[in-house]
Amino acid sequence: MPDSRWNILLLRLGALLLALIFTFLILLAVGAQPFSVFGDIVGGALGSSSRFSNVLSAWVPLVLVSAGLLITFSAGLWNIGIEGQIMLGAIFTTGAIRLLQETALPPALVLALAIIAGMLGGALWASLAGVMKTFGGVNEIFGGLGLNFVSTSISLWLIFGPWKRPGVASMSGTEPFDEAFRLATFQGLRLSPWALLLGIAAVILVYFLLRGTYFGLRLKAVGKNPRASYILGIPTWQHMMLAFFLCGALGGLAGAVQVTAVYHRLIPAISSGYGYMGLMIGMLVNFHPVWAAPVALFFAALNIGSIQLPILHKLDSSLAGVLQGVLVLFVLLAEGIRQKYFNRKAASS
Amino acid sequence: MNVELQNIHKTFGSVHANDNINLSIPAGMIQGILGENGAGKSTLMKVLSGFIQADSGTIFLDGKPVIIHSPADAIKQGVGMLHQDPLDFPPLKVIDNFILGQPGGLFLDHATAISDFKRLADQFGFHINPNAYTDSLTVGERQQLEILRLLWLGARVLILDEPTTGISALQKEKLFATLKILAKEGKTIIFVSHKLEDVEVLCDRVAVLQQGKLVGEMSPPFNAEKLVEMMFGKVITFGGRASFDPGESVLRLENISVEDYRLKIQRVSLNLRQCEVIGLAGMEGSGQSLFLQACAGLVRPTGGHLYLKGADLTTHTYHDFKKNGVVYLPAARLEEGLVPGMTLTEHVILAGEQRGMFINRAAATQKSQENIKSFNIKGRPESSVESLSGGNQQRALLSLMNDPLDLILVEHPTRGLDIESVMYIWSKLKERCRQGTSIFFISSDLDEILQYSDRILVFFSGQVSPPIDAATTSVEQLGQLIGGKGWEKITNTTEAANA
């Protein structure tokens, strides 16, 4: 079927339209003015260079996480534990900076080491879910979910316990780092060029990993048919473990960026739900790396654009989440209908 | 209940699985149904038990024409089927399994069910604890549970599909006694099997299916030779078996034992030599698959030793075997052999050797084009494997084999393929033999076994025959062995030889 590519694109656009209409109706139902709300979301995201730079700094962790999840998706794994992996990345990064900031090491080196530590933290946390899956028979969805709760508890314990601010422990997090231990930002903006670079590099790397390498192709084979892959000579569980490890490293990197470029400390909600958003993006782009970057940008824009909704419209900013969630549901629904319809046609012919 | 099947037809694609079957079974009779794999036994029984609908034809129960829509509908009309693999829920308790199929009611009446269960079980002398978990039962006990359940639901016709596989001799005796009691009570028993001796002991009458047709019926006294002939048809003799001087030992088995949850293969010793082809014959599920997978390292033997060119690989995994020149080609091509959703070229990359980190797509496409040409695959390098026909999938699978190979283990190399593909695939396999590769292959086609093997192993319920020289045996002898007859003769001779 040569036009199926266009069919899919049309269906996606149709789903987007439906999601907008649905949100429109919800806005009407709560007595808001939908057009003005949509307009303000667009304005809030793209209205000024500082706003757009905020969109980009939300894009970075989102695209890192999405890129990582594309690896596990390829291997047929649902790495729900990504939230916890972001968290552990943030914890390891914070820990490394706290450990090294008093030493004589140059701050740039400390930052680099801290970011590497963050990747390692995320990777180890993901490997834990992987080990439970391969050797303990625990489905990675359940294992990951459990580990997410554990990681939240660890970060709360650190913030209110060993790492509490002198005198007062609060939900606002640990003591902020000195200027020297923060990633440099563009003049007058909150966006760090280093973070942006890391995000872009991750997408390109994952693209080539999945498209061009033996590893990527084997990963896909393992995801589609582990038994046949094994018989074709592919070390199955090793590939799954490596997928977990790499995805965790990218999740950990997202956590490290959150700490070093955005918050400059460890806060309880450091993952900001980016892990779950990354899962939604993975489903939305149907696991194609090329689309992950623009869709992540769209999601980031929605998030940043809705920040001022409470002030302008007395609406909660979670409207962005409603729109994103509804969009994913409609896209999946459209895909399901397409497959059912398509399969029936194939079966009857 | 009287069961009558009239002019039953059922086709699957181009296969006529049931071709005008007429069979009338009076109440109180134990009717045997014999036939080799693919003869149409299961199809016929599935039609009768509501799993599938016939294309045409009528089923009469006690003289009345009925339409059976589903298995639930069948049991409502009094027809219950006992499947070869028990259709129960191992994590549940016996009593919950017992109640499960019962229609109606929001709440479970455990007390009544338990007392009913005990009364029924006592009647046949079954000793099953209703509160035990089903996964702690033996296959035989699970079968007993299933019989009780069907009777409790009101089955007056009981269909049993290969019920004697995987149960102990004692349980078999009990099963047969139970079936005889049930028949005396006026129940109709339909006993589907390929085991001649079971049929002889138990059945009042036997119907034989062959290639979808009912080719004959027989009442006691049964004539085993005649039955085998009906099952397998007239013997066609082939010329030109690929015979080579067998070389040195490739695979040596020393008292190898393997088992799964229903079968035990014990203490098999064998020496496979270079260039040799050994065919594994037997009804499906008699242990040949298990045996082959043990030879590939996919199933770990429970005892004995396995040497590949002198090296002990007993506890090694398939990947170690693969490195040592062994390849396993599974019967389930799309489930185990190939990766659906990936193209021929991608398979070439996956199966081939890795050169560097990045894939050279152009080279892989060229290699896949060469494969397509030399294996005559009807497809393109970018065709996904599931879009190919069965024959072409099999060719694709063969084309992925590496060079050089010492041993090919292949399940059903030509099952479901057109004759042209069959010839082609064997020509490719024989080519490998000439280059020094040995082959183990499983087939349900006795002609194929006889034509291409140098030696033959026959499997029956986990029993393995000593190697039989293909030149000195016949379809009749193999057919009898597959049906469990004539084993004393061959085992005695080898014991004598061993002594």
SSE arrangement:
The complex is a heterodimer of chains A (349) and B (499).
Chain A: H1 4-29, H2 34-46, H3 49-74, H4 82-100, H5 107-136, H6 140-160, H7 193-212, H8 214-224, H9 226-231, H10 236-263, H11 274-284, H12 289-305, H13 309-313, H14 319-348
Chain B: E1 3-12, E2 15-25, E3 30-34, H1 41-48, E4 56-61, E5 64-66, H2 71-76, E6 79-82, H3 94-100, H4 110-124, H5 139-152, E7 157-161, H6 169-184, E8 188-193, H7 196-202, E9 205-210, E10 213-218, H8 224-232, E11 249-259, E12 264-273, E13 277-281, H9 288-296, E14 303-308, E15 311-312, H10 318-323, E16 326-329, H11 333-337, H12 344-351, H13 361-374, H14 390-399, E17 407-411, H15 419-434, E18 438-442, H16 446-452, E19 455-460, E20 463-464, E21 468-469, H17 475-482, H18 487-498
Parallel strand pairs in B: 3-8, 3-9, 6-7, 7-8, 13-18, 13-19, 16-17, 17-18
Antiparallel strand pairs in B: 1-2, 1-4, 4-5, 9-10, 11-12, 11-14, 14-15, 19-20, 19-21
Helix pairs in contact in B: 3-4, 3-5, 8-17, 12-13, 14-15
Tell me what you see in this structure:
- The complex is a heterodimer of chains A (349) and B (499).
- Chain A has 349 residues and is mainly alpha-helical.
- Chain A has a domain at 66-274.
- Chain A has helices spanning 4-29, 34-46, 49-74, 82-100, 107-136, 140-160, 193-212, 214-224, 226-231, 236-263, 274-284, 289-305, 309-313, 319-348.
- Residues 344-349 of chain A have low confidence and may be disordered.
- Chain B is α/β, with parallel strands linked by helices.
- Chain B has 3 domains: 3-232, P-loop containing nucleotide triphosphate hydrolases (Rossmann fold); 235-325 and 404-499, Rossmann fold, CATH 3.40.50.300; 338-401, no CATH class.
- In chain B, helix 8 crosses helix 17 (475-482).
- Chain B is globular, with a radius of gyration of 25 Å.
